[in-house]
Design brief:
It is a single chain. By secondary structure, the chain is α/β, with parallel strands linked by helices. The protein is built from 14 helices and 11 strands. The protein is globular, with a radius of gyration of 22 Å. It has a 5-stranded mixed β-sheet with strand order 2-1-3-10-4, with helices on both faces. The chain has a 4-stranded mixed β-sheet with strand order 8-5-9-11, covered by helices on one side. It has 2 domains: about 190 residues, 3-Layer(aba) Sandwich (D-Maltodextrin-Binding Protein, domain 2), CATH 3.40.190; about 120 residues, D-Maltodextrin-Binding Protein, domain 2 (3-Layer(aba) Sandwich). α7 links the parallel β6 and β7. The structure holds beta-D-galactopyranuronic acid.
């Protein structure tokens, strides 16, 4: 190799090493396994962040609860920036940001369309910005469908919940909700629920079909699934605020653009996966009971909603205004 060529090769190599070492890597925690709609959205987000920052940022996804199967632990990790980004349920994040607890009020939304009409409204978007005092920056909302009870014994009506033990996410409002419906609530990390049902520590839990069937295999130990749809908890993609503040204005815009472009993608993936999960559950032996009249469930939580609602008065007004007119 002549001298000129070796100098060029050395320069190219130095530039390569420099650009790779200049790349910033951010960890993203996800409790669900690869292929779950929120995980697919995380991947899309990572791809778009790389694209819009010209490869300056790499988002490294840790799926399947590999950071922790306990979302409370994950959120604490984001709080201290040991992990910069996470996707969790607003039910879990509500314990860190009181305003988010509005979503833990049962029967809050009439439908998925009502929820999305609110989440995409200026008020819904402001709630993401309002995570700042908790040390977080909300990037976007994702769909988490609706949650219903399941158990290892037949469930047909609300009376069947009486005196039984159901797991909830660690969140006081969710504890009160289950108690208002007549059962005992056992706060527990998602990762512990399967063995807790198997060993009889609890009788059941509550979740959407994709989590019940595809992520956690709970249908194998709790085959009775009663579609009372008591909660519609949005999922949240959020980031450590300190890490966010270190980004340049252009990079912040790139992250925001990336996140907002994953929303429609995730909603579509959710709708497909929800149908698939329900079918897989039934094929695997799950006995799914439709609840034609949800009035007894709504009546059971009426007092709870009346007591807890006033703390969210302004938000509830905005949620009411986002109702789809019939
Ligand atoms: C799922 C949600 C997870 C987790 C889980 C739970 O629906 O996607 O983020 O919160 O529920 O019940 O812990």
């Amino acid at each position: 190799m002549n001298l000129k060529r070796s100098v060029i090769v050395a320069l190219v190599l130095t530039a390569f090493v420099f650009s790779v070492s200049a790349q910033k890597v951010l960890k993203l925690a996800e409790i669900h396994p690869q292929g779950y709609p929120t995980e697919l959205a995380d991947e899309e987000f990572a791809k778009l962040v790389a694209k819009y920052t010209n490869g300056q940022f790499k988002v490294d996804i840790f799926p399947g609860g590999s950071i922790s199967g306990d979302e409370k632990v994950v959120i604490e990790q984001v709080k201290i920036n040991a992990v910069s980004i996470a996707r969790v349920s607003s039910g879990a994040l509500g314990s860190f940001n009181a305003q988010l607890n509005v979503f833990s009020l049962p029967y809050l939304f009439d439908s998925s369309d009502h929820m999305w009409n609110f989440l995409l409204s200026p008020y819904g978007q402001k709630m993401l910005a309002d995570l700042a005092p908790s040390g977080f920056v909300g990037l976007c909302w994702y769909d988490g469908g609706s949650r219903s009870f399941y158990a290892n014994y037949p469930l047909n009506t609300i009376a069947d919940l009486k005196g039984k033990k159901f797991r909830v996410m660690p969140n006081n409002l969710l504890v009160k909700m289950v108690e208002a419906m007549g059962a005992s609530a056992v706060p527990m990390a998602a990762g512990q629920v399967f063995s807790a049902i198997q060993t009889g520590v609890i009788d059941g839990a509550e979740n959407n079909a994709p989590s019940y069937v595809m992520s956690f295999n709970h249908y194998q130990v709790a085959k009775y699934y009663m579609l009372d749809e008591h909660l519609r908890l949005p999922e949240v993609l959020f980031m450590n605020k300190g890490a966010w503040d270190k980004l340049s204005k252009d990079d912040q815009a790139a992250f925001r653009k990336a996140a907002s472009e994953t929303v429609a993608f995730q909603r579509k993936a959710w709708n497909d996966y929800d149908v698939k999960a329900m079918a897989a559950g039934k094929a695997g032996g799950s006995i799914v009971v439709e609840v034609k009249d949800k009035t007894p469930f709504k009546n059971a939580v009426k007092d709870l909603v009346a007591t807890e609602g006033p703390a969210f008065a302004e938000t509830l007004k905005a949620i009411d205004a986002a109702r789809i007119k019939k």
